[in-house]
Amino acid sequence: MMPSNNAYDGLETRKGRIYGRQTEHSIEYLGIQYATANRWQPPMDLASELFSNRSLEATSFGPCCPQRDTGIYIPKQDEQCLYLNIFTPFKISHESLLPVLVWVHGGGLISGCSTQSIPLLYNGTNIIRHSLQQPVIIVTINYRLGIFAEMYLTELIEENFEWPTAGNYNYLDILSALRWINRNIHDYGGDPNNILLFGESSGGRTVVDMGALKGSSNLYHHIISQSGALATSLFYSNMSFALQKSNEIVEQLNCSSHESASFLTCLRNTDINDLLMVYGNRPLKSVIDGYFFSYYPSLAIQCGTYNQNINMIMGANKYEEPYYPIYPDMNSEFAIFIITEVLGRNRAPTVINYFELNNCSSSVNDTNRCCDITRFIINAFISCGFHRVYNNIYLKYDREDHNLFWYNMDCNSGICPKLSKEEGAGLCLHQSCRPVLVPGRHLAGHQAVHQASLKF
Q1: Which domains can be identified in the chain, with CATH numbers?
Q2: Would you say 237 and 285 are in contact if contact means Cβ atoms under 8 Å apart?
Q3: Any idea which residues carry the catalytic annotation?
Q4: Is the pLDDT of residue 138 over 90?
Q5: In this protein, which residues make up the domain named Carboxylesterase type B (predicted)?
Q6: SS3 per-residue string spanning 339-408
Q7: Contact 297/389 with Cβ under 8 angstroms?
């Protein structure tokens, strides 16, 4: 017998009737647009907008946000990409609302999508299938990436008096999605007062960053941050650095000779592929702008501006450093390059000299292998970033209510893929946490090793 809210009858919501896709374990409401977004402008919320014709056929995913090819399957892409997907159990009740888990995908903030890979990597139905004793609702979201999220220009700041900053559009998108969820999730049986953000890698860093953002209070209540590489100079920039890097991008386009208004028009009319090409694959740096993102999380905690009432689980894997299995024969030059990228040009020389990376070896048989030393340094640096946030929260807010937790994950043979030793067999590397939290099909290759904590 079909439940009363099955996909064929549709579900009546305040926005209109929505028709989802029924599976063996869930009903999936796919491709719901939560906001529109003009290029390099804050998103325009659709949380209160009615569905067109008061109904929505939500049986297929919306497009992914534009990105370069990074070797993973990304379906159709479009700049109007701010969509979310809701996965619910068959039976929902408006009297007994369910916890809401909102997934923020990883990908260095330059790649990824809620609907990436075949089979679907972030499949909320798989969590529901493994959560029969404690039913939950899963929401997966898209947000802007790379050059479409990061561009920080004086002209962008000056064009909008109501929003006197630029960049960080990915964070603005996520806040918009949370506003949509807060307003509408009750209709799907979800509890707007029990929302958990969780993410891995750059998604794990993002869910921690959210607590330092203007306008994030009361939109969510818990986070799980997995392998987020917190508080490293690789991922944050000040305004002058952001302005410099954005201007360097502009110089490679054909818009720099235009006047201010036509300059932005020119940039906004530039072909997507041209923008992606000049941006390259460099990691996105979130802008500490003194307005929307005033302090990175550790400092926001110290200053008392971080969300205080958030329950947190954060942690890392035993071997976070991803280059160990990929470049086991790395030489001194490459090791120095990696450490400089991670630690920054000011701090890197001290570490490079202390560990004598100029003299490290690429040979498998030597005791001073470059890849081993690099792995140790990056593990320590990532772990330090996590512990800094964890300790600052505990000390600042005296978290004796046991709502702050830390984990350190090691693998077992059932989680880590059976690769050769040089490929990281049995090592709990970056992304190895994914299959634990997000149950699903076994992943293969390095991606499975780096992401073994999440199991969708």
Answers
A1: 11-309 (3.40.50.1820)
A2: yes
A3: 201
A4: yes
A5: 12-323
A6: HHHHHCCCCHHHHHHHCCHHHCECCCCCCCEHHHHHHHHHHHHHHHHHHHHHHHHHHHHCCCCCCEEEEE
A7: yes
